[in-house]
What does this fold into?
Amino acid sequence: METRSETDKILGQGPITINRIRFGLTILYFLSIAMGYKRSTLLQNSLYIAGTSIMVLYVTYSFLKNRFGTGVSPFLAKVFIIADVFVLCLVMVGATSEDAKLSSNVIKQVVLFTINVIYIIYAGLLLSPGFVYAVGVSTIIAQTLVVINAANTGVAFSEDSQLSITPGYASMSEQITKMLFLLTVAFIVVAVIKIFIRLKSVEEEKSAAMEKSRTDLEEGKVRMTESAVSLKENSKKLKDFSDDFSEVVSNHAASFEQISSTMEEFLAQTEQSASTVNDQFGKIENLLGESRNLNTLIDRISGHSSDLDKNMDIVLDAGKAVSRFVDGLRNSLESLGSSFRSVGEVNQIMSDVADRTNLLSLNASIEAARAGVAGRGFAVVATEVSKLAESSSENADRISKIINESTKYVQDGQKSAHTASEKVKEQDTLFENFLDSFKQLNQLLSEQKTVNERFLNSLTSLRNLSSDIETASKEQSLGANAIMTSVSSLQSSMESLLHKSELLSETITILETEAQVLASKD
It folds into this structure.
């Protein structure tokens, strides 16, 4: 923190240094005015004295502020530098306003140009790159105004090397070079400022690191002292613990014999449990195989049951078709019986016609006999008609007999069809009942299959559990053997541990002594 304060004090010297340079320039300005008073005009001398007097005022203000006050603020310091540039510009504009020859000498003077360079350089003491650029641009603008005013006064610009050094003439490339030089100086000063700012940052980081190192060193010293005290206390506690540990080891040495005998009994029980679990595992394997066979049998029965179910559906559909066919046959037979009855009625009509024809033939024969010879032809016709009537009567009797027989057959067929329809309906009802029972059987088989699968899964889980138990029993047996070996090894190591505990107690005593010496030194 002290180094950082010194750096801030060095940075605070910037405005003071600038004011000292400005004070020196003021003295030089007055000396220059005194030496060139007779060569200058009244206006020029007046401008020189006015500009220099203004500088004297804020130089005095800055001196008093820096000496007796809190110092000039950075903003006011920047304003004063801009005022320096403005005063110089005002003086040079006044100097180039009278005569072309004098104006050409003014813009050619190296001293006045150098003063602009000085302004740019001491603007950098404020460590503000942006402000340095602003001052550089301000000096270029001021130089440009002076050149323009000189040109208005009558200065002729020429690039001829001989003519440009003649009074009243000047080189424009020289003026442009001066302006570019001012800009270059500004860039150089900014680069230097950035380097200084970077160095300042590095210095601040180093200061912070040194401060942190000093703090860490002090904290480390405190921690080391605390650690020495703590080491002393812990050494005492460790010694007490070592004593207690030696006593515990001595007590545990006697307990390991009891642990060894107990582990032997446990090992025997474990082997017996492993044998029992192995037998149980074999029985579960056999039961699992039988359950799988039962599950396979149920699957086969379910498959056949499904096929039989499909066949029963086909038979039921066929029975329904037969029932429909028998109903159709019965209806057809009833229609055929009705037709036969109609044919019998027609045959009865034909029998009546034959009887009437026979009666008409008899009457015709009687009339022909009455007519004698003239009625012979008519008698022949009557005889043929009588034959025809007899033949029609015989045919009607025969047709009536056939119709009666056919009607009997149709009636028997109707009775048989009715009986068959009733039997088919009863068969359909039986088939439907059988199909319902068969569906219930399929459902029971499906439920049995589900139960068997659950039972099979339970057996599988039980088999896995038994396998795990068998594996755990084997591992437990191996672990018990390993524990027995470890107990034997541990029992043999107890004496060595007890001896090392005594050595540890001696070492702790030495460590406690050294910790006490270290704490007394701190």
In short: The radius of gyration is 72 Å. Residues 1-5 have pLDDT under 50 and may be disordered. Residues 172-371 form the longest helix (200 residues).
